[in-house]
Specification:
- By secondary structure, this protein is an alpha/beta fold.
- The chain has two domains: about 5-115 and about 235-280, Periplasmic binding protein-like II (D-Maltodextrin-Binding Protein, domain 2, 3-Layer(aba) Sandwich), CATH 3.40.190.10; about 115-215, D-Maltodextrin-Binding Protein, domain 2 (3-Layer(aba) Sandwich).
- It contains ten helices and 14 strands.
- The chain has helices at about 5-25, 40-55, 70-75, 85-95, 150-160, 180-185, 200-205, 245-255, 265-270, 280-295, and strands at about 30-35, 60-65, 80-85, 100-110, 110-115, 115, 120-125, 140, 170-175, 190-195, 215, 235, 235-240, 270-275.
- Strand 1, helix 2 and strand 2 (about 60-65) form a beta-alpha-beta unit.
- Helix 4 (about 85-95) crosses helix 10 (about 280-295) and helix 5 (about 150-160) packs across helix 10.
- It is globular and about 55 Å long.
């Protein structure tokens, strides 16, 4: 190998090591994400975003999938610096753990960027349950009582229709994951259930089920491209915890709001990107109404 070629090789090695050293010495940030469909799906969906933020900020972002029950302990024990979660968790834990929303999710469906989502109340296609009132005395499954799109939205809808989901059903079951709820309804484990909008469409695209397997109760006829039964609420926030560095927060926000739908991180998550934080007051109102009936 001649001298000039060796010099080029050494220079390349030096630059690679310099970049590695710069990133590693810039510290690391733990990015928690609510794994609403399980860890494997969360990693596939949000792993590229962690890589994108690492490259954009110079700080290594480590993805930490979290179950519904693990969200608050992770914040309490300062195990995460950032969090992608449902807006219900955000408004409930915001003051307690000094959380701040840096951006809000833009979902993607049929080429449209969506900053809202809703809840779906579903029964099996051949179920004798035809109306919401028919759910009284039946087994009803939510994802978790703390799931906003897979629980609390539907609870509010039921309450406003004169049904108390905590007293008027024979059993209020928890499926832990959105997919589990859909499968439980198909298999008859639950008579009815609720998941967030876009769940059924994504599961159908993955070949796991068909929309025709279900009847949607109180289906809303509007121009929102995902099937839903409830009113719409602001999409998930990207949240900074109290452990997050202010200077890094600014870099993260810039990277998020600068993301376009054609980037690998956006494609993996099936999103259009991120926008300025939305108003989460409607979420607080929903949770207040639900908690009053849960007492």
């Amino acid at each position: 190998m001649n001298f000039s070629r060796m010099k080029g090789v050494y220079l390349t090695i030096f630059l690679c090591l310099s970049v590695f050293f710069w990133i590693s010495t810039a510290g690391a940030a733990n990015l928690g994400v609510l794994a609403k469909r399980g860890n494997a799906v969360a990693i596939k969906k949000w792993g590229p975003l962690a890589q994108y933020l690492t490259k954009a900020t110079g700080t290594e972002f480590k993805l930490v999938p979290l179950s519904f029950d693990a969200i608050e302990p992770a914040l309490k024990n300062k195990k995460i610096d950032y969090l992608i979660t449902n807006p219900g968790f955000f408004v409930t834990l915001k003051d307690k753990y000094s959380l701040s929303a840096l951006a809000s999710l833009l979902n993607l469906r049929q080429g449209k960027a969506l900053n809202q989502f809703g809840g779906v109340i579903l029964v099996k296609a051949d179920s004798p349950i035809k109306t919401l009132s028919d759910i009284k005395g039946k087994k009803f499954m939510c994802v978790k009582k703390t799931s906003f799109g897979g629980g609390q939205m539907a609870f509010r809808h039921m309450i406003e229709k004169g049904i108390n989901p905590f007293k008027d059903v024979s059993a209020l079951l928890e499926g832990k994951k959105h997919d589990n709820v859909a499968f439980a309804v198909i298999r008859g484990v639950a008579d009815a259930g609720t998941v967030r909008s876009d769940t059924l469409e994504r599961m159908q695209a993955e070949g796991k089920l068909k929309l025709s397997d279900f009847r949607i109760i109180d289906k809303v006829d509007d121009d929102f491209p995902f099937v839903h039964s409830t009113r719409l609420y602001p999409e998930w926030p990207f949240v900074a915890a109290s452990t997050a560095d202010a200077a890094l927060n600014a870099k993260v926000k810039g990277a998020l709001t600068g993301m376009s739908m054609d980037m690998p991180a956006a494609k993996a998550a099936k999103i259009a990107g991120w926008t300025e934080p939305l108003d989460y007051a409607p979420v607080s109102e929903c949770i207040r109404i639900v908690k009053e009936k849960e007492k």
